[in-house]
Amino acid sequence: MSNYKVLWFDDEHETLEMIKEEAFLNDIELIGFKNADEGIKELKENFRNYDAVLLDGLFFKTSEHTGDNVSGEAFGEVAKVLGNLKTQGTIIPWFIYSGQKSFVKEKNVLVNVLADKAYANGKIFDKNKDEDFIELCKEIKLAAEQQPYTRARIEYQESFHPFKLGIIDKKYEYLLLEIFASHFEQDYRKKNINVQRDLLEAIWQSMHFNIPCIPESFFDVRIKNKPNHEWCTLFIENRVVKNNFGEHTIENYVPKVIGSAFRCLKESVNDLSHLGDEELVKFPFITNMYLLITILNWLPEYVKANYPNYI
């Protein structure tokens, strides 16, 4: 699996398998879209999943466009979305990779206005030059590694395994990315403790809905299956939990260090819940982050050993 995932806007990407293969050999996965509309939808919904964006100079604006119906307007639409994400605090490096002579060699007003000089000095990489592709791959990696989401996936690869294996729903992966991003940016406001609590709850939910470990009665269907924090913690500590549905004990032993990690994390996120979102809680945040790493790194082996048919 490649370390770098790039969203590629190019109306001819389906015929450019050689470029995709060369990129893969350089640890880059190119995810292609022929038109701006469909690619922009993916970008808006899953921007955290991408380490960079690659743009042809001229490509289709909508799925209805075919043949020679390409334009620089599509380029402008994508650049606008990237600009909006940037103003919201999400920076995604983007590069221009074009084979059209009019785009590569001639002065293009649209590119001059929209090209981001921060990446490869705004250079337009030429598809017709092998050396440009090699340089492009280097620039993509260099820029991506400065971004918090990419850095998180590279530096803490093991912590993402529960999501890759389907133990925890992929839709919750953004919580882990946000936690690491906050740490890299030294943003230790209490509101980020809330993200840690949400991830803890997602882990508990995964241990019932994805693997048959935690009993169903520990979740409140009236409030989106919110887990009972104390019951879940006691259960993972290998202790007996009594509720209206009987007595419950975990079937497969959990190491004490993991039970303690759940306990400390649960107590921390709840004890801090009364604070204002802007209050600084640096050391609790960092401690909680490493507790989550401990839990996430343990979970795949526990599931493989005790629930092998569920991954």
Give descriptors for this structure.
311 residues, alpha/beta, Rossmann fold, 5-stranded parallel sheet
Summarize the structure.
By secondary structure, the chain is of the alpha/beta class.
Describe what you observe in this structure.
Helices cover 49% and strands 11% of the residues. The chain is built from 13 helices and nine strands. The strands form three sheets. It has a five-stranded parallel sheet with strand order 2-1-3-4-5, with helices on both faces. Strands 6-7 form a two-stranded antiparallel sheet. α10 packs parallel to α13 and α12 runs antiparallel to α13. The chain is elongated and about 70 Å long.
- Taking all residues together, what is the mean pLDDT? 92
Low-confidence stretches: none
The count of domains is: 2
Give the strand order of the largest sheet, numbering strands 1, 2, ... along the chain.
Answer: 2-1-3-4-5
* Global Rg: 23 Å
Work out the number of β strands: 9
Straight-line distance between termini: 18 Å
* Morphology call: elongated
> Secondary-structure element sequence?
EHEHEHEHHEHHHHHEEHEEHH
Strand fraction band? 5-15%
Class per helix and strand makeup: alpha/beta
Number of helices: 13
Helix content: 40-55%
Oligomerization category of the chains in this entry: single chain
Q: Main sheet?
A: 5 strands, parallel
Topology:
Blueprint: E1 4-9, H1 17-25, E2 28-33, H2 36-46, E3 52-55, H3 72-87, E4 94-98, H4 101-104, H5 109-114, E5 124-126, H6 130-144, H7 148-155, H8 161-164, H9 173-184, H10 191-209, E6 219-220, E7 226-227, H11 229-236, E8 241-243, E9 246-248, H12 256-271, H13 282-306
Parallel strand pairs: 1-2, 1-3, 3-4, 4-5
Antiparallel strand pairs: 6-7, 8-9
Helix pairs in contact: 2-3, 7-9, 9-10, 10-12, 10-13, 11-12, 12-13
